[in-house]
Automatic annotation (TrEMBL):
InterPro entries: Aldolase_TIM, NADH:flavin_oxidoreductase, OxRdtase_FMN_N. Signal peptide: none annotated. It comes from Sphingobium cupriresistens LL01. Its cofactor is [4Fe-4S] cluster; FMN. PANTHER family: 2,4-DIENOYL-COA REDUCTASE, 2,4-DIENOYL-COA REDUCTASE [(2E)-ENOYL-COA-PRODUCING]. This is 12-oxophytodienoate reductase.
Length: 384
């Protein structure tokens, strides 16, 4: 039953030392406005504008961790994704964080290693060998990337060695320590969409027969070790958010976990590693995750781990992300359903991507009853 009590969305939420003024999270969105990995001038005001207009928590665009193979030429967009190491980048991030805090907001960086999805021979360190658990991209018949991209990534490479895996875990830890040093309010780990962490979770990209591969729990070891290392490099009370998805850029219909039991087995070691909040990345927040229940992925993760959860996908819009590139998409108000699911305890926080890209004032307008700016694809190319 929909009661449409939107006020619930504007109530504070506190967990693990993070105190959000409302339930709205800005979803991580790659923008490619960081030539050489250093956020350009407009990035600080881009985030500060959204913080000033009541966004509870900002998760930044994906930021490459301090490892040579973390980023490729194309970060699925154009090729200027930021990093979180080196004086120039850290100075910029410190300013960005200061600006968001001055506007009353909170901000966490999304730490990203593209892994399997990085185009070999590209990025800030083109010579760096590919970082893939089993050397493979995965199935090629359903990929959600353009044909030329697929052609550049489909050839197998040498699987990661044990010591290379250790180096990457250490890179996540270094970047997390840097994040804390410049004042970020926590860490968000990109464990979704087929990138490196997710490629360990998914059986189609992780076919290892050593301790990093095997059943659902074994495939979660890499993610759990990353979380543990990030925890050790920061502080016991530094919030860690982990983004998980079933879908991959290799296959939108993919599932890392086929059943709730398998999902429980996979997430338990990651939660035990020290995650404070899970972020369930779906195309539509309301899509049932498993047969026999209306509950979405966020609800299942909350039920199975007991952790607070962020849901995402299609809030404020008539079409999900992939469809919006091809089909007419309009702003729509579906917040009553979001509010109901939060009130029922299915999830705690709601992330908003494209609607906040279109309109920095979106959260405030939703509170005050204003009309949001219209959906327009060109907004992806500006820092407005
Ligand atoms: C331009 C753009 C860039 C994105 N980049 C990232 C990213 O860097 N990391 C990530 O986890 N998700 C990324 N996403 C996915 C969003 O975080 C979000 O899950 C998705 O857009 C669905 O939310 P929405 O329907 O509210 O847009 C991106 C989405 C868009 C539109």
């Amino acid at each position: 039953m929909t009661t449409g009590d939107r006020d619930k969305l504007f109530t504070p939420f506190e967990t693990a030392g993070l105190r959000l003024r409302n339930r709205f999270v800005m979803a991580p969105m790659t923008r490619n406005f960081a030539p050489d990995g250093i956020p350009s001038d407009g990035v600080a005001s881009y985030y500060a504008r959204r913080a000033a207009a009541d966004v509870g928590l900002i998760v930044t665009e994906g930021i490459g961790v301090d490892h040579p193979a973390a980023l490729g030429r194309e970060s699925m967009g154009g090729g200027a994704s930021p990093v979180l190491h080196g004086d120039a980048a850290l100075t910029r991030w410190r300013d960005i964080v200061t600006g968001v805090h001055a506007a009353g907001g909170l901000i966490v960086p999304q730490l990203w290693h593209q892994g399997v999805i990085r185009v070999p021979g590209t990025g800030y360190h083109p010579q760096a060998p590919s970082a893939r658990p089993s050397g493979i991209w995965g199935p090629t018949d359903k990929a959600m990337v353009p044909p030329d991209y697929l052609a550049a990534v489909r050839d197998p490479s040498t699987p990661l060695t044990d010591s290379e895996i250790g180096d990457i875990i250490a890179a996540f830890a270094r970047s997390a320590a840097n994040a804390r040093a410049v004042g970020f309010d926590g860490i968000a780990l990109h464990g979704a969409h087929g990138y490196l962490i997710d490629s360990f979770l998914w059986g189609h990209t992780n076919m290892r027969d050593d301790r990093w591969g095997g059943d659902a729990a074994a495939r979660a070891l890499f993610a759990a070790e990353v979380v543990r290392a990030v925890r050790a490099a920061t502080a016991p009370d530094f919030p860690i958010i982990f983004r998980f998805s079933q879908w991959k850029l290799q296959d939108y219909d993919a599932r890392s976990a086929q059943t709730p039991d398998e999902l429980a087995a996979m997430l338990a070691p990651i939660a035990d590693g020290g995650v404070d909040i899970f972020d369930a990345s779906t195309r539509l927040f309301s899509t049932p995750a498993f047969e026999g229940s209306d509950m979405g992925l966020a609800g299942w993760i909350k039920r199975l781990t007991g952790k607070p959860v962020i849901a995402v996908g299609g809030v404020g819009l008539s079409k999900d992300l992939q469809s919006s590139f091809a089909q007419p998409t309009v702003m729509t108000d579906n917040l009553a359903l979001v509010a109901d699911r939060i009130a029922q305890g299915e999830f705690d926080l709601i992330a908003v991507g494209r609607a906040l890209l279109m309109d920095p004032l979106w959260v405030r307008k939703m509170r005050d009853g204003g009309a949001p700016d219209p959906f327009r694809l060109e907004a992806y190319a500006t820092l407005d």
